[in-house]
Amino acid sequence: MPTGSNVTDGCGEEQRFLDYLYAITYTVIFIPGLIGNVLALWFFHVYKKETKRAVIFMINLAIADLLQVLSLPLRIFYYLNKSWPFGRFLCMFCFYLKYVNMYASIFFLVCISVRRFMYLIYPFSFTGRKRQCDVYLSVAGWVLVCVTCLAFPLLRIGNETRGAGGEDKCFVDLPLLDIGLTSSIVTVTAAELLGFVTPLLTIVFCTWRTVTSLREPHAASRDLGEKRKALKMILTCAGVFLVCFAPYHFSFPLHFLAKAKKIASCSQRRVILTLHPVALCLASMNCCLDPVIYYFTTDEFRRRLSRQDLVDGTELQIFCTKDLLDPDGLGSS
């Protein structure tokens, strides 16, 4: 770790602590994130025809996580060396990927929750055409996320791209453009409402309606089992959402204003600029936690990983048993 002051300025964050925090966090999540998401994509590709609707959203969620994971080695290198020798474009692209992953993950977590809820309430309304609609919805989601997340790198394009020693800066060390207090408030408010509040309310609604469906009288025991399984998946999505993204979005408005020096108090700015990166590291943990959704909420995924499929010659023998139709498997996820 390069030597230097622990604090960037009198009101700045503890720079050395944050450098170690980022480097350690990204190192810890890299291997499990890589293995978990590659394994998930392999499973969804091999058994895609056996599954139903939510698999489309799970594939896209795994792709979003994998894109972020693949950029982590470069992030680790930067925070250990505090220099970026890979060019300006790659810096901005990796910076951009972080936010694309975050909001794509939020989008697809919501889609998984809604699809599981809708399948529970209207189990006979889904056809092959619905699956095609999920593909279109996923494409629209990627376009929306990729376009809106362009604001993050655009707000970091400035002239101060080199440190005091002449080294190239990247990621959190990139300067933030001053767009004025009014524009800052409008930008942050839009990001919070569209990227966090609306998805949160959607997941809360799906959870509430699933819980109330469990209390409906005269429900068959099988229906109750399916509803409990649906609730397990929705609650898992909600748990990942809250653990990874709630701290970031609670601190994001304050960090944006502190970084733009719109908060006058030096002590307040210093606390905000130090705590927000902790929330950002929690947001990065979704790369590891998203595969938990696949493993702990889908029996079929768990069974495939717990035993080796039989191989007859060069052909994989796929177990087409009745459990493939069980809503606890991917068929109802």
From TrEMBL:
Q: Where in the cell is it found?
A: Membrane
**G-protein coupled receptors family 1 profile domain boundaries:** 36-294
Primary localization: membrane
Q: Which UniProt keywords apply?
A: G-protein coupled receptor, Glycoprotein, Membrane, Receptor, Transducer, Transmembrane, Transmembrane helix
Say which domain of life the source belongs to: Eukaryota
Membrane topology label = Multi-pass membrane protein
Q: Which InterPro entries match?
A: GPCR_Rhodpsn, GPCR_Rhodpsn_7TM
Task: Indicate the transmembrane segments per the record.
Answer: 20-44, 56-80, 86-114, 135-155, 185-209, 230-251, 271-297
- Which named protein is this? G-protein coupled receptors family 1 profile domain-containing protein
User: What's the source species for this entry?
Assistant: Ranitomeya imitator
